[in-house]
Amino acid sequence: MAADLFKLPYNAIDLLPHRAPMILVDKLLEFDAGDGVVTATIAADNIFVDADGCLEAVALIEIVAQSYAAIKGYDDRLNHRPVQRGFLVGGRSFKIKRCPLVGEQLRITITTMADLDEFSVVDGVVNSADEIIAEGSLKLWLP
Prior knowledge:
This protein has one helix spanning 57-78; strands at residues 10-11, 27-32, 35-41, 87-96, 105-116, 119-128, 131-141. It has 143 residues and is α+β, with helices and mostly antiparallel strands. A 7-stranded antiparallel beta sheet has the order 1-2-3-5-6-7-4, with helices on one face. The radius of gyration is 14 Å and the shape is globular.
């Protein structure tokens, strides 16, 4: 059945223009027209993990951006379009409370706040279990 092709959860690798080692998210769990929930597991071989097993702060911003990209990629697939490229333009009020460690599974909740021509503004919240470890807004360019 064709509907099964788009059944969630959906592997992020099939929704992103990224390739290893830059894929930082695992699966799209929930989707609702520009909003969604994505998971990311911090692996020991992640290029942003330091010697202490801590994910660098900049990677949390990229994880939020890739989570939005997975949501957009899923929308592209649902609408029979090729997965499009996008670019992180900037962040606003992005707060990182702590770095996640190797082995932690993150849950990233994305809410689209605005779509203006080729630009989107999204809010992202990164949780580890019930703890918010990062949150903020990103501006992305989708040419």
